[in-house]
Amino acid sequence: MGYVELSNLDKYYKQNQVVKDLTLSIEKGEFLTLLGPSGCGKTTTLRIVAGLEEADRGKVRIAGKDVTAIPASERNIGMVFQSYALFPNLSALENIMFGLEMKRVPKGRARQRAMELVERVGLAGQERKLPDQLSGGQQQRVALARALAVEPQVLLLDEPLSALDAKIRESLRDLLKELQRDLGVTTIFVTHDQDEALALSDRIAVMDAGRIIQLDTPYQVYRNPVNRFAAEFIGTFNFLSATAEAGGTIRFGSNVLHTAHPVSPGPVTVGIRPESIKLAEGRKTGNLLEGRIAAIKLHGSIIRLQCRVEEAELYVDLLNDQASDELGEGDSVLLSVKEEDLVLIE
After folding, report:
1. Closest CA to 339 of 233, 225, 263
2. Residue 66 above 90 pLDDT?
3. What CA–CA distance (Å, rounded) separates 4 from 156?
């Protein structure tokens, strides 16, 4: 049995079912992300764990205890919201101490604990400032420290980084992972940002229409999506409508490809990540595709080629180096892809 157990959760808003028979087990100390588009039920699921929403059916257990009917104030949970939710009339330090004072921790000990966290989250020298005197990133550090101050059994994070700019978001992402790992707190993180999910998580639960459609490690979710929705939501995929034959042979127009995965004869959709496609550079055997460069786009360290192959357009990601500088729009290219990098999509 996991440290956090969600069993057969259903939640309706009037006639709209937003969580559908959701069951999930989370291990102690695990960082699990609920990933999905807006409206998929991820935030509602988090709020049910927190006790801020009541499930219409199902159970929530934390550390073996059924907390389904226990109010949010009596669950030992820390929560960080996108909106920070700081008290505007309290200093950063007083905000961090607030939960400890509500638990009647002696003021001296509460202050000591809060100051320790001020140091840990990089706010030394800012602790006397009011929230409106702090930047967005600093306010979110205060919110994180406040949630951790009470030493929660479970830390819940509802898109806490989405309102911040890219550089601040990345630095806070690193801080969050470091704190979670060092403190060993069981964490449930909600986001629609695939990069955050891949960088932070021990496991990712991909959600669609109130259900978990895939639950696995970041590597497996990225490399082996269970269906087209998961494939399209996480990263970029090229999709080829092809025909499978016996023996793992796949025909795409005049091209013959081979896959290392089991495949039944008939129509099939093949997915290929852009970074899995290479320039063949003189190869004459293997999975080869003849194409022409339609466009070249710069993505920092990556050059993305938009290649026309038969009736399809394929994205090809190459390192931005001297060799890629020699490519031009309209050039013919021979592309190669390994058998194991052809993903069969349902």
Report:
1. 263
2. yes
3. 12
Each residue of 157-186: pLDDT tens digit? Answer: 999 888 788 888 888 899 999 999 999 999
Q: What is the pLDDT of residues 105-162, one digit of tens each?
A: 999 999 999 999 999 999 999 999 999 999 999 999 999 999 999 999 999 999 988 8
Strands 203-208 and 186-191: unpaired
| Domains located in the chain, CATH noted | 4-232 (3.40.50.300), 236-345 (2.40.50.100)
Whether the model pTM is above 0.90: yes
How far, in Å, CA of 3 to CA of 63, rounded? 5
Q: Pull the structure tokens for residue 126.
A: 């800012």
From first CA to last CA, the distance across the chain in angstroms is 31
User: Does position 316 have pLDDT exceeding 80, yes or no?
Assistant: yes
Is residue 292 scored above 70 in pLDDT?
A: yes
Residue 162 backbone dihedrals phi, psi, to 5 degrees = -70, -20
Report the pLDDT value the prediction gives residue 83, as an integer from 0 to 100: 83
pLDDT of residue 253: 87
Find all residues with CB under 8 Å of 164, minimum gap 6, and list them: 136, 137, 140, 172
Q: What is the 3-state secondary structure (H, E, C) of the chain?
A: CCCEEEEEEEEEECCEEEEEEEEEEECCCCEEEEECCCCCCHHHHHHHHHCCCCCCEEEEEECCEECCCCCHHHCCEEEEECCCCCCCCCCHHHHHHHHHHHCCCCHHHHHHHHHHHHHHCCCCCCCCCCHHHCCHHHHHHHHHHHHHHCCCCEEEEECCCCCCCHHHHHHHHHHHHHHHHHHCCEEEEEECCHHHHHHHCCEEEEEECCEEEEEECHHHHHHCCCCHHHHHHCCCCEEEEEEEEHHHEEEECCEEEECCCCCCCEEEEEEECHHHCEECCCCCCCCEEEEEEEEEEEECCEEEEEEEECCEEEEEEEECCHHHHCCCCCCEEEEECCHHHCEEEC
Measured distance CA(157)–CA(181) in Å, rounded = 15
**Amino acid at the residue 321:** D
Q: Is the dihedral of CA 103, 105, 107, 112 positive or negative?
A: negative
